[in-house]
Amino acid sequence: MPSHSDVQSTQSRRLRLDAGTQALVATDSLRPSLSLLPAAAYQQLLIVSPRTPATIERLVREAGGDVSTVGHLPLSATEHDYEGPMWTTESIDPSDLTGLSMQYNRALRALEDGHGWVLFDDFNTLLLYTDAERVVRFLGHVTQRTREAGVRSAITVVRDAMDDQTYASLQRAVDTEIDLR
Predict the structure, then answer these.
(1) Is residue 39 over pLDDT 50?
(2) Which InterPro entries does the record match to this protein (predicted)?
(3) Does 114 map to a domain?
């Protein structure tokens, strides 16, 4: 499948994806990946991340985004007590891919076809809690749903923290790969 994405410049490292494109973004660290998103992504954004809602709110504000147009699915085995302007759910245990899928599908419906963005921040987290085969199947399911909804997604992974076989399996679930290492 031809690539429908690129990085706007090597200096800004901002992603540019066509509507419905699903991208696996290889990074070299666990730094927050919100800095990769273009400004337009913050108009309708769903973030799936192990970071706390308060941290996500702070990062969105630092990026110049409007937290009232951002949703967050927090991946954590512990509850959070966030009560802010950003939409969020209760914490989702990273080993509960069924629960995550259900919450994801609900949140995806709130994003507008052709305009919304999804950011899986540190997708490696799921691999720490669940076997790779289940995580790959999960990624295939959510990228298909996201593609059908006409929503862009960036799935960030720390490439050097996983084996080649797992990475190759994740690549097959997306439309393009962007290596930012």
Answers:
(1) yes
(2) DUF7504
(3) yes
pTM of the model: 0.91
- Rounded to 5 degrees, φ, ψ at 31 are -65, 150
Q: Tell me, what's the pLDDT at 8?
A: 37
Domain count, the chain: 1
* CATH code assigned at 112: 3.40.50.300
Q: Identify which of 87, 94, 85, 172 has the alpha carbon closest to the alpha carbon of residue 137.
A: 172
Residue 11 lies in a domain: no
Order of strands, sheet of 70-74, starting from the edge strand that comes earlier in the sequence: 87-88, 70-74, 45-49, 117-120, 152-158, 22-27, 176-179
Structural domain for 130, as ranges: 17-27+39-179
CA 28, CA 158: separation in Å to the nearest integer?
Answer: 5
CA distances, 31 to each of 7, 21, 83, 130 (Å): 18, 23, 25, 22
**Rounded mean pLDDT, 42-60:** 96
